[in-house]
Amino acid sequence: MTKAGNILLFPCPITEGKMDSLSTESIDLLHQTTYFIVERAKTARHFIKATKHPIPIAQLHIHEITNQKQENESFLLAVHNGFDVGVISEAGCPGVADPGAEIVDWAHKNRIKVVPLVGPSSILMALMSSGMSGQNFAFNGYLSNKKPELVQQLKILETKVSKSDQTQIFMETPYRNDFIINACLEILRPETKLCIACDINGPDENIRQMKISEWKTASKNHYHKKPCIFIIG
Amino acid sequence: MTKAGNILLFPCPITEGKMDSLSTESIDLLHQTTYFIVERAKTARHFIKATKHPIPIAQLHIHEITNQKQENESFLLAVHNGFDVGVISEAGCPGVADPGAEIVDWAHKNRIKVVPLVGPSSILMALMSSGMSGQNFAFNGYLSNKKPELVQQLKILETKVSKSDQTQIFMETPYRNDFIINACLEILRPETKLCIACDINGPDENIRQMKISEWKTASKNHYHKKPCIFIIG
After folding, report:
1. Residue that terminates a domain, selected from A116, A139, A171
2. Residue A156: inside a domain
3. Cα–Cα dist B110/B102, whole Å
4. Residue B100: how many other CB atoms lie within 10 Å
């Protein structure tokens, strides 16, 4: 019987082309892998090519994750046939605020070995840089884009910070940064700390943390349409 | 006036000597840095040496983070004098379940630029590998070592999973793995999923996720005295 392959979780850069943000172990293993299940085929091909994969891209097996569980699973048969299959998301770590978890869940159900590789995660890098507690934290994904619900959510997050000392992380689509920053300044208490981690690992990286009272008078022009992670603590 | 330096956050391997888990950007920047504020001087020296730092270790400025805020801040004056200062913890990412946040907080208060580098984090790698939701998760640090309190905590975490679909991560000191695994099997519902991510990025790496009902009959010998991250979802 063929020994089953592994599911390898390959992070990719969070800033396009920033190949030096990857671990050498991850690139070495990527170069030994010929099957990939990915969030988006086009960007995955682009990324794999940029790592200087020794095999021509056209000869690699690249499958885009679909909602059709069966299609994904039929591609994943390669694992049972002894091939390693790499999982790659659009940016950063597969499965963390990105697709990939369903593939890993399938692997566990089928007793396939799962191997995580090291690479960039904007959430983790924002947390490291926030100066807030990394002993107890929560990532909340995207908050609501409707003002009344957002107000409620921010109040709940602030209560979690003050009651449980749990750092609260969330994100927003870049074109709504102004909306969320204004809501934070309006809703949160003056003493609450807010960290805005903007364009992490990118050319315009800018990470600032201060109290809401200080943010009120600080310049906020920097954040328009740039990817940001928000942290309150 | 001298331009201030930066605070650079350097992750280090979570398995001793595993240098290929670091990003090349991080190593390049480390080699340009001569001031370091660290969790433990001995291991930091060992790590810096292993990266093949071009300057002899004895000529680097290495300060161990103390409870004496003033001592740390007097070392950090180097930043005002234009030097970059690197922050290094015992293993993984500074400030994430490790010291370092107070240094970053100081940097923000003093309007010093903070730059996070890419490297391994056992928490993030465990989450990626769990096959559970990475859209909404919390890291809870260490749970209680007293049975009645641990029981309460596990029940609360399980409720957060079922009510808010929030994946719950926690850790334990390796010699208490058996204690915590047994408590999980006793307290959690049969349908709850438990992931044990053991010796991540190490020679005995083993990551398994299954329902509590399945864990009851599975072998659990592997985990004795090895570093583990636990995730319920």
Report:
1. A116
2. yes
3. 12
4. 24
Q: What is the pLDDT of residues A121-174, one digit of tens each?
A: 999 999 999 999 999 999 999 999 999 999 999 999 999 999 999 999 999 999
B208 contacts chain A (CB < 8 A): yes
Identify the pLDDT of residue B97. 84
Tell me the C-alpha distance between A134 and A138, whole Å.
Answer: 10
Chain B segment 56-115 residues within 8 A of A by beta carbon are 93-98, 100-108, 113-115
Query: Are residues B101 and A133, on separate chains, in Cβ contact within 8 Å?
Result: yes
Q: Which residue has the tokens 């903070």?
A: B114
Q: Are A171 and A184 in contact (CB under 8 A)?
A: no
Amino acid at B190: P
Write b or e for each residue in A140-165: b if 16 or more Cβ atoms lie within 10 A of its Cβ, otherwise e.
beebeeeeeebeebbeebbebbeeee
Domain assignment of residue B2, yes or no: no
Which residues, 6 or more positions from A98, have their beta carbon under 8 angstroms from its beta carbon? A39, A89, A90, A91, A92, B134
Residue B112 zone, left/alpha/beta (φ > 0; ψ -120 to 50; rest): beta
Judgement on whether residues B168 and B111 belong to the same structural domain of the protein: no
Contact between chains at A121 and B124 (C-beta distance less than 8 A): yes
Closest CA to A71 of A42, A101, A106: A106
Q: What is the CATH number of the domain that holds B16?
A: 3.40.1010.10
- Closest CA–CA distance from residue B179 to any residue of chain A (Å): 21
Task: Indicate the residue among B97, B116, B135 that finishes a domain.
Answer: B116
Q: Specify the DSSP class assigned to residue B89.
A: -
Give the model confidence (pLDDT) of B202-218 as tens digits: 999 999 999 999 999 99
B32-46 pLDDT, tens per residue?
999 999 999 999 999
Say whether A20 and B9 touch across the interface (CB within 8 A). no
Residues A112 and A130 both lie in one domain: no
Alpha-carbon distance of A229 to A34, in angstroms, equals 33
Tally of domains within chain A: 2
Q: Which residue, among A20, A27, A106, A129, would best test binding to B if mutated, counting the most B CBs under 10 Å from its CB?
A: A129
Rg (CA), chain A: 20
pLDDT at residue B132 greater than cutoff 80 = yes
* Pair B133, B147 in one domain: yes
Position A51 pLDDT exceeds 80: yes
Residue numbers in A near B166 (CB within 8 A)? 138
By residue range, what is the domain housing residue B169?
122-232
Q: Tokens representing A167?
A: 């750092």
- pLDDT per residue as tens digits for the range B31-89: 999 999 999 999 999 999 999 999 999 999 999 999 999 999 999 999 999 999 999 99
